[in-house]
Every structure is written in structure tokens, then in C-alpha cells.
Design goal:
By secondary structure, the chain is an alpha+beta fold. The chain folds into three domains: 47 residues, Uridine Diphospho-n-acetylenolpyruvylglucosamine Reductase, domain 2 (2-Layer Sandwich); 116 residues, Uridine Diphospho-n-acetylenolpyruvylglucosamine Reductase, domain 3; 109 residues, Enolase-like, domain 1. Helix content is 35%, strand content 25%. It contains twelve helices and 14 strands. The strands form four sheets. A five-stranded antiparallel β-sheet has the order 4-5-10-6-7. Strand 4 and strand 5 form a beta hairpin. Helix 10 runs antiparallel to helix 11 and helix 11 packs antiparallel against helix 12. The radius of gyration is 19 Å and the shape is globular.
């Protein structure tokens, strides 16, 4: 199929882009890598009347280490993030996750910010940025604001961005000392959408007890699921096999998976618990 008719704009600066968004608002769609938007337009699941192409806005593509962590421009290609030494050092959970995203050809075009703004609950980056406590910078012609990851993903394919706003930067905080991480997923084939996945981050104190934990699951709800109650089971305890299993079992009460031709809801629940147990075990070992 072919997309419905639309007007096309190719701005070269952020101010020019924001002017267009202010003018056209919800009638416009931003084109980043196009790996998600273009297929939905071809199937006419999305029918924007205006398409604003960001690929000439060079100032949106960068990776910058900062005192607080590392900043990633929204138009930075996923492949660049995957290969960046600063990401591997400051945000190793992101570096571990990137090869799970589709295939190299897709990551060569797909953008870090585009995946987040698309807000697919089966996508890896929303879960990982939520697990890390990332912050997102949004800009409009009138103002700019920071949005915490926990407030960014509102519902299925929906974010907190207003029609006249665009995502310009993602800030990933540096991991504290004695912090371990792990990302795991199960898919029918490598590169397919995950049937279920989990990002886990665990921080230990000097005595080896769990000081903080984050468990964020993907493909088991309308948004990435921050399993806070399950994570609380670990906090203050020695993260041994029994505590890890208890936390893994507890995620079942916090997820709401749906079934489809690829996996039943019950199978996704099973995967969520198994992957959480395995990811927590790896994160704890790395924290030690």
C-alpha cells in the first residue's frame, strides 16, 4: 500500500522545526529514522497531513558525557549508541541492550529518540530508560521542559509530549558504585519483537545488602511496566536466591499481558517471571 497524501517539510534547525510544529500541531508527524512511522503510513494506520523530516537537523545527533551521566541527542542513530565507548562506560545497560533491537540495518537508520517517542510497549529502549531513571528534554516554540521517564510513557504508543513539542535530548544518569545491571528478552527469532523482556538494575551497600532495585518489564502491558512492589522485596535484604525468586514471583501481580498468535498471556507471564529471576541474578553478581 501507499501512504495517504501529505505535505513534506525538511527543516535544518531546531527553531525552524518548532515553528512548523507550532503552526501545524497535531496535523504533523515528525520523521526520524522512519523505521516505525513509514510502515504505519504505508498501511494507512497513520495518516498525517504534514510530515516534518528531522534528518537534516544535525544539532539533534550527539553523545556527550556530562558530570551527571551522558546526554544523547534525539536523532542519534541507534548504531552510534551501540558502538560508543562513553555509553559502554557510563550506561552499560544501554550498551548491552542495543544489539537486541531489530537488526543492524534497522539500527543504522533508527534513532534513539525516535524509538522512545514512538512508545511501543514491546520496544527495548522505553524499558531501559525507565529502569535507569532517565530524563527527557522536550521543546516547543514557547518553552522547554524536562520529563522524568516514569512520567513520559502514558499509554499505548502515547507519550507526555504535547502536539507542539518535540523530544530533543535524553539524559542517562551515571550508575552509582556497587550497581549491577542486566537486560534479557525472549523473541521467536533474533530481531523480532520480544514476547517479553526485562531490564534490571540493583545497587548494593557496603555490607552486600540491596540498597535499591529497579525491575522494568516490556511487552507485558500498554507501557513499560515498572514493577516497584517486586523491587521493594529486595530492598534492605540480602539478594540471595530466595529473595530473587520472591521478587520474580511478585512481578506477576504488576503486569497485564495480552495474548496473540505469537504467545498466550499465560506464557508471557511465565517468561516475565523467569527473565526477572535470571536478570536479577546477573545484576546482583555484577554489583558485587
Amino acid at each position: 500500500m501507499k501512504p495517504a497524501p501529505f505535505q513534506y517539510f525538511a527543516p535544518t534547525t531546531i527553531p525552524e522545526t518548532l515553528d512548523l510544529l507550532a503552526q501545524y500541531g497535531s496535523d504533523a508527524k515528525l520523521l526520524a529514522g522512519g523505521q516505525s512511522l513509514v510502515p504505519t503510513m504505508n498501511f494507512r494506520l497513520a495518516t498525517p497531513t504534514m510530515l516534518i523530516d528531522l534528518n537534516r537537523v544535525d544539532e539533534l545527533a550527539y553523545i556527550q558525557p556530562r558530570d551527571s551521566g551522558v546526554a544523547i541527542g534525539a536523532m542519534t542513530r541507534q548504531r552510534a549508541v551501540e558502538r560508543d565507548a562513553n555509553i559502554a562506560k557510563i550506561a552499560p545497560l544501554v550498551a548491552e541492550t542495543m544489539p537486541f533491537i531489530a537488526h543492524p540495518q534497522i539500527r543504522n537508520r533508527g534513532t534513539f529518540g525516535g524509538s522512545l517517542a514512538h512508545a511501543d510497549p514491546a520496544s527495548e529502549l522505553p524499558a531501559v530508560t525507565l529502569a535507569l531513571g532517565a530524563k527527557f528534554k522536550a521543546k516547543s516554540k514557547k518553552a522547554e521542559r524536562w520529563i522524568d521517564a516514569r512520567d513520559f510513557f502514558v499509554s499505548l504508543f502515547t507519550t507526555a509530549l504535547e502536539p507542539d513539542e518535540m523530544l530533543v535530548e535524553i539524559e542517562l544518569p551515571a550508575m552509582p558504585a556497587r550497581t549491577g545491571w542486566s537486560f534479557m528478552e525472549v523473541a521467536r527469532r533474533h530481531g523480532d519483537y520480544a514476547l517479553a523482556g526485562v531490564a534490571a538494575v540493583v545497587s548494593l551497600n557496603a555490607q552486600g545488602a540491596c540498597e535499591n532495585a529497579r525491575i522494568v518489564l516490556m511487552s507485558v502491558g500498554a507501557t513499560p511496566v515498572d514493577a516497584q512492589n517486586a523491587a521493594k522485596i529486595l530492598v534492605g535484604a540480602e539478594p540471595d536466591e530466595k529473595a530473587i525468586q520472591a521478587a520474580a514471583n511478585a512481578v506477576d501481580a504488576e503486569i497485564d499481558p495480552s495474548g496473540d498468535i505469537h504467545a498466550s498471556a499465560d506464557f508471557r507471564r511465565h517468561l516475565a517471571k523467569v527473565l526477572t529471576r535470571r536478570a536479577l541474578a546477573v545484576a546482583v553478581e555484577r554489583a558485587k
